[in-house]
């Protein structure tokens, strides 16, 4: 059976043999795109190539891109621990054509790699195409030989102007085009329906590979002009693919994750290897370690606050498993053992990573235990509304360092919600008190959490199950 490391290498080899230049992963902090919080897909580092302002010396590329979907446009943080297929940090395998080959080669190679090289049973695979993309439909049916009942046409998304699950675009104008996605059927014993069905959001039919065909240039008036040199951008989740190739139904059961989960179990003295908290810790150590490796440190704003929130979520899961001391920074060692070969920066920056995580761990340890007791009291007062009062959520945030999404996450486990509007107004009131106090030059008592680095008042939007509310992220 192939290890995750071997699968990563197979992918690079397959496309290198077909004339692709191997390009290293970019960092999680996008180098040239201040509008983007994190690198969330393979195309980020090639954005300027697609826009035409950068010309690499190759027209075909292959890479394994580390990605983070824990803030900004893509946020899968609240899926972690709840689905078998979502991580905050994951690796995206991609092959690229910059004005070279197009739909036919991209589709035929994807099929050859999956069914030929890796031997996946064709009858387990389903594909989707954009509803008007007869060209892709025809290639799948006539050249690959996929039966029409397993080729699903996917239309536009509910009401969103140009968005659709199977139509990709970089922005409101510019390069865009249809996608075709490949799904694997894990079997009838797993819950979930095929793509395009009402219960598609399950773990039975798992999307493994997205092939994007950039063929249009959308004009400000919405017209689609054909691009002179169409491009291909593909992305396949390494962990999902490994699950398929290792005959398991969850990403968390692949070799890489099992090693991390065992390490987490040892550090937290947990016997039950299937415990959900171990999965979350295994997920979060990757996100946190790579963020630090790529230059992010825990802080109260922007990227640093996303890191802080993920670390605190992991620490809370450790607490749930009964840990009362430091453990999380000790996950760096097994992570380096697992991924250091593919990512040498983990090895060279190991000390920094351990120190940063350890410091944050020590800091949160001062309030975590007391905060959890307060949470229990607050939860007991939720009453029939099944909602935690905004004032109380604010107190947890202000005095105990519980980011609002952490509180919402714990509440969700108990079937409780959070009064976001109430939290926001408590936060606003606090800000006004601080402003008034500083006007009079008086000594104000800032919460210990904020005292060191209160930034200018600032909102960071972030998507989460607690609603579309804008959440203060300082
Ligand atoms: P899904 O619909 O399952 O959330 P997606 O459509 O958002 O996936 P894409 O943006 O198309 O994903 O990314 C390309 C590939 O990256 C996906 O086909 C999948 O294999 C993988 N992938 C996407 N999000 C995640 C994640 N959070 N964790 C692990 N792999 C992911
Ligand atoms: Mg998604
Ligand atoms: Mg999808
Ligand atoms: Mg997709």
UniProtKB/TrEMBL annotation:
<keyword id="KW-0648">Protein biosynthesis</keyword>
<keyword id="KW-0436">Ligase</keyword>
<keyword id="KW-0694">RNA-binding</keyword>
<protein>
    <recommendedName>
        <fullName>Alanine--tRNA ligase</fullName>
        <ecNumber>6.1.1.7</ecNumber>
    </recommendedName>
</protein>
<keyword id="KW-0067">ATP-binding</keyword>
<dbReference type="GO" id="GO:0045892">
    <property type="term" value="P:negative regulation of DNA-templated transcription"/>
</dbReference>
<dbReference type="GO" id="GO:0005524">
    <property type="term" value="F:ATP binding"/>
</dbReference>
<keyword id="KW-0547">Nucleotide-binding</keyword>
<comment type="similarity">
    <text>Belongs to the class-II aminoacyl-tRNA synthetase family.</text>
</comment>
<keyword id="KW-0479">Metal-binding</keyword>
<keyword id="KW-0963">Cytoplasm</keyword>
<comment type="function">
    <text>Catalyzes the attachment of alanine to tRNA(Ala) in a two-step reaction: alanine is first activated by ATP to form Ala-AMP and then transferred to the acceptor end of tRNA(Ala). Also edits incorrectly charged Ser-tRNA(Ala) and Gly-tRNA(Ala) via its editing domain.</text>
</comment>
<keyword id="KW-0862">Zinc</keyword>
<dbReference type="GO" id="GO:0005829">
    <property type="term" value="C:cytosol"/>
</dbReference>
<keyword id="KW-0030">Aminoacyl-tRNA synthetase</keyword>
<dbReference type="GO" id="GO:0002161">
    <property type="term" value="F:aminoacyl-tRNA deacylase activity"/>
</dbReference>
<keyword id="KW-0820">tRNA-binding</keyword>
<dbReference type="GO" id="GO:0008270">
    <property type="term" value="F:zinc ion binding"/>
</dbReference>
<dbReference type="GO" id="GO:0004813">
    <property type="term" value="F:alanine-tRNA ligase activity"/>
</dbReference>
<dbReference type="GO" id="GO:0000049">
    <property type="term" value="F:tRNA binding"/>
</dbReference>
<feature type="domain" description="Alanyl-transfer RNA synthetases family profile">
    <location>
        <begin position="2"/>
        <end position="474"/>
    </location>
</feature>
<dbReference type="GO" id="GO:0006419">
    <property type="term" value="P:alanyl-tRNA aminoacylation"/>
</dbReference>
